[in-house]
Amino acid sequence: MKTLRNSEDQQEILRRVAQLSPEDHSHWGKMSAHQMLCHLRDSYCVVLGEKTASPASGFLQRTLAKWISLWVPIRWMKGYPTRPEIEQGKGGSAPKEFTSDLKALQTVVSRFCQAVLAPCAPHPVFGVMSANEWLRWGYLHADHHLRQFGR
Does a structural domain hold residue 123? Predict the structure, then answer.
């Protein structure tokens, strides 16, 4: 199973991010490739405690949905709503300059991979997560959005 705990999987995600271009079009959803970079960066920043996201969790989300999302080898559902604080066009960080936003995402992914071993903020939907769960989520979330843009 792919996870950001493995350096090969980290490098895969960083390589795929580096292949993005502002001209890439999404296969689903409303975000541009540039907006997606900012959304991913915001999501990792929530984990690191540098940004907040309101909770939207219940018992099923913290148990069954979390387990299925992280450990069952199926692709994540397209169009699942995100928290408004990290949603583009609402509370998410607005895109500025593509290359600098891309580098900022690469930097935060690297920091996330190192810092997630310490206690982190709870996931807004899945609640408290272990380092292994965060590193699995980190891979899956990036993979989901990179596939959205054919990467």
Answer: yes
